[in-house]
Amino acid sequence: KSKAHSVQEVWEQFTIKTYNVNWFEGNIGMLPDGSIIAPNDNYLVYQIDRQNGKRITQFPANEMIWSLPAVNTKTGKMFFGTQFMALKNVYCYNYRTQKAEWTNGGFGSNAASPLLTNSNVKGMVIVGGYDGYVRAYAQDSGKQLWKRGLRDHIYASPSQTSHGLIIQPCADGTIYALNPENGKIVWAYDTLEPIRSSAAIDGNDIIYVGSGEGKLFCLNPDGTLRWSYLCIDEDRNDLNSSPALGPNGVYIGGENGSVFFIPYDYPLHNAYKDKNCYIGKGEALPNDGAFLVYTSSFGKLLPQPPANIDANQPLAFTLFVRKNGDTLKSSIDRDSLSVSITGNPKHRIDVSANKQFFVITPQETWVGQDGGTITITIKGQYITGMHRFGLKFFGGSTAGTFHVSYSFAIAPYKGVLPYTYPQITGKPQTVFECKRLAAPNPTMLPSWNQIGFDSLHYVGGVVSKASGGLVVWFIGGKLQDGKTVVDPTLEARYPLYLRSDGKCVTLYNYDGFKINFIGSWDMPFGMYRLSTTANPLTGTIEHSPALVAIALGDEIEFYGRFLKLMGMTEFDTGHMAVFGGLTMSLHGSGIATTPQGAGTISFEAGKTFIKALLKDSRLKKDEHVYSIMVVDAETGNPLPLYYTKRTKVKDINNTVQEISIEFDKGQVKGKVKAYCIVDTYPIAVQLLRIPSE
Questions:
Q1: For residue 342, which of 79, 149, 198, 400 sits 20 to 30 Å off, Cα-Cα?
Q2: Is residue 121 part of a domain?
Q3: How many CB atoms lie within 10 A of CB 139?
Q4: Per the confidence metrics, is the pTM higher than 0.90?
Q5: Domain count for the chain
């Protein structure tokens, strides 16, 4: 095995400041001498001796590298993209001399692997970026030869047919064939959901591509549909991996953890008996019209909405416009959007920054516990013919209207959930776990970090009661031996309110909080809401919660300003509307009790801190996560402090002596309650008065 440089080692040896991850996220390649090339998140591409794993050399860049380098063995040049946001995100190295020859790029990072049109010194290198452009560069100089803008960002790598056509799948749901000489679109095949799968092309120029619909698409060389096969019909249904062509069929991996095998042209001969097969020449989409397509929390676009919903369930809709058999780039005219709901329940509407989708969220239920029916009527206008800068579309003109009504039945949801908090130290506490976050909307989020999202684990315990409901304290966890456990190395700490309306469970924080995202940068939320239902007898979570969040993009260090160019955040507010889902359950038995060995605990408060002092403690710093949660003395509502980064733990020989939370002067005033928390359990609480000026 070969170990990558740590963040500290990269700084010491290359004076490059990186994040705190050194993951190998890109694919592995090989040079002519048999050595391995491996891109890393620590900004280095490694050349490794495959016999013994020793590093031969490394090629430094300016950001994380997910792009597999393309190698021209005749010229000795190697080409790859980086996650850098602007202009300098395509690299050319001479791997023989180990010197950088040129850099170029666009207004969006590059996850895709480049394509070399041929091995000629004057050949082209082609790569698609997150700004939605496919670009062709001269291999010898890096000069941009042409570019072609698509409707959304590009995650998939390009492929080439025997006739030279460039096949480029896109997150806009379309598979494009481009003329290699000028980038003009020769043909395009539209699907309903984002495509991140790179195309595999066989010797007969038959094209195979996975999709966000859970389908494997097979296209003829002229871009007509040969067949499609539905591999996954579940919530988590993306086929983001690239197909592999075997001797007898196609292999592809899916988001649900399965690998699928479809024999070549199996659907052509079995469509009559296998409902997952589809054959036909055209696109399985309407030729014309503007549609608001119901969107599930895991990103499924459902032409027919479900008949039944939960009382606390948010409802999302995505704009989809077709004209003359083609999907058009379009956006919702936010000012014209009108939503009316029978019964006039309190709700909020969040429109995405790219104006592709919006979410209607109840505050906090649509109807009372007896259930009922609601009808939602949505009216508005849509815009086409927009200008663009990067992936930020603007201007354009009104092209049409939409007007739809949907009715949803809501079953009665009476009941009392058995969740408890320790009113006296030593009493049991209900504990939850959350994992496998998926944030399919906006579509850029999975492309940037779905591996990271899916790897997140959180543990949350009910600590206290407040005017807004129960208070649940969440900390970071990890997967160990197939189970979620607390991870003492993580800094994440944040409170959510838990409101139980009958069997409806809503976890939320509308005051905002920050967490340290994957241990590297701050992720600030202005609003965060999870909603699901639970069994009143056991408290067991019945299905995956829906997530609605507003991320505060302007407060994200470095990346924030570039998110505007990606169309992910609003130009004026920096807000990013997020719609997704995750897996939630009771943690283990669902009950936690007092950690042993805390000793005697006392509190101190100053103008800028609150600390808990532990006497005769036996608690070990590296065995738990330690926190101070501060709440309003009257309401019990948690104060929106930066618990993740401003919590400090002091120890002597790994034995905890002091836990503190720091805050700005004037941020905390008057009477408060401070909870000293070990993992998720409150081992002590005290009423304090913060000194005045």
A1: 400
A2: no
A3: 26
A4: yes
A5: 5
